Prior knowledge:
Elements lengths: L7 H6 L2 H15 L4 H17 L1 H7 L1
Helix pairs in contact: 2-3
Amino acid sequence: MADLRSSPFTVLFGSFDAWVEQEVLPGIEGGTLDRRDMVAVVTALHRWEADGTWGQAYAR
């Protein structure tokens, strides 16, 4: 079970990478998500995963 401070991606998909594999990549390949936009979005969200932003948000 995910920690209460886990990101929504970890809570819903088990890990951030699983979200990318299950939702983002198929969306890009299927043409529903723009590749350039999603690279920027995934990069920003991955940074939040790494730097503890989610845990800080829950602390407020």
